[in-house]
Amino acid sequence: MKGNIEERACQLALYIIENKATVRAAAQKFGISKSTVHKDLQDRLPAFNKPLYFQVKAVLDENKAERHIRGGIATRKKYKGD
Q1: CA atoms of 30 and 34, how far apart (whole Å)
Q2: How far is Cα 3 from Cα 79, in angstroms, rounded to an integer?
Q3: Of 3, 14, 22, 71, which alpha carbon lies 20 to 30 A from 63's?
Q4: Is 82 helix (H, G, I), strand (E, B) or coil?
Q5: Nearest-angstrom CA–CA distance, 10 and 24
Q6: How far is CA 21 from CA 4, 12, 46, 59, 79, in A?
Q7: Residue pLDDT tens, the chain, 82 long
Q8: pTM for the predicted model, two decimal places
Q9: Could you write out the three-class secondary structure of 30-64?
């Protein structure tokens, strides 16, 4: 998945938008680190595709607002065995 960085950033953004995926899920799907996903989406994508950046930013902001809820659900599952 190395190759063209701009292409990778666009593919990551489209994947996250279409699947409402988290950074962690996108990193796992593309076989790269979470840091690379963040770097591609936050720093590189706005330089060449602003509209796509704003779409993916909305999804990432939504994920960030919900992360405490996901953590609580994961903890409940861990200790209840659901």
Answers
A1: 10
A2: 43
A3: 3
A4: coil
A5: 17
A6: 22, 10, 19, 8, 25
A7: 456 899 999 999 999 999 999 999 999 999 999 999 999 999 999 999 999 999 999 999 999 998 888 888 889 899 997 6
A8: 0.83
A9: HCCCHHHHHHHHHHHHHHHCHHHHHHHHHHHHHHH
Instruction: Write the Ramachandran bin of 20: left for phi over 0, alpha for psi from -120 to 50, otherwise beta.
Output: left
Q: Is 40 exposed, middle or buried (0-12, 13-18, 19+ CB in 10 A)?
A: buried
The three-class DSSP label of residue 28 is: helix
> What's the token pair of residue 18?
């279409």
Tokens 């790269």 belong to 32
What pLDDT score was predicted for residue 18? Answer: 97
Output the CA torsion sign for 42, 60, 11, 17.
negative
